[in-house]
Amino acid sequence: MNAYRSRGFTIIELLVSIGLIAILLTMGVPSFSRTIEQNKLSTQINSLVSTLQYARSESVKTGKRVTVCKSNTGTGCVTAAAGYESGWIVFEDDSPADGDLDAGEQLLKVHEALDSNLTLRGNNRFANFISYLPTGGIANADPSADQDHFVLCKGSDTAKSRAIYVITSGRTRVAKDKNYDNIPEDDSGANITTCTPA
């Protein structure tokens, strides 16, 4: 008579399997979270790059000055709000060409606020707005500098940041992280040092 023998896991095999799964999850979850966080930062900075390219192309196409300004309402520019993390708008900046949405000027695009833990700031003359001329150049660029920039950070952590450089001709580029320390660098190879550029 053949005896039937049931097959399965012993309690020791089960405990070892659960222990291995717990170790793998402990190692994998933080890495996965960092990847998600980095992708979120890239998505947000790319949305600003897309907006700037759109504003530049609209200015060239229509022959009018086009401005991108920070806006927490979607209906007008604000200078009191902390930064572009509150949202921004794109509009034809006709007369007066002052970096503010005035009566009669056409609103072209509205971008909603970013996640509450992100900051997005422009330096120098881009603190409140950036204006494109029909030539594609920047109307409010700093003539003493080749380029200005925007910095996106999670909180005030430069190790969780992205940066965009805009040269006076109007071209944009996302800053690279050539030394892989998660901090973008300027053209000289130095890391950005602040999330609130002045």
Care to describe what's here?
This protein is of the alpha+beta class. It has one domain: 3-Layer(bab) Sandwich (minor pseudopilin epsh fold), CATH 3.55.40. Helices cover 26% and strands 23% of the residues. It contains 1 helix and 8 strands; from the N terminus they run H-E-E-E-E-E-E-E-E. The chain has one helix at residues 11-62; strands at residues 66-70, 88-92, 107-111, 118-122, 129-132, 147-154, 157-167, 172-174. The strands form 2 sheets. It has a 4-stranded antiparallel sheet, with helices on one face. It has a 4-stranded antiparallel sheet with strand order 4-6-7-8, with helices on one face. The longest helix has 52 residues, at 11-62. The mean pLDDT is 88.
Task: Write a concise synopsis of the structure shown.
The protein is an alpha+beta fold and 198 residues long.
Number of spatially distinct domains: 1
Q: Which class in CATH terms?
A: Alpha Beta
Please name the CATH architecture.
Answer: 3-Layer(bab) Sandwich
Say what the CATH topology is: minor pseudopilin epsh fold
The CATH homologous superfamily name equals minor pseudopilin epsh domain
Q: Can you summarize the main beta sheet?
A: 4 strands, antiparallel
Global shape: elongated
Instruction: Round the Cα radius of gyration to an integer and report it.
Output: 24 Å
Q: Give the N-terminus to C-terminus distance in angstroms.
A: 88 Å
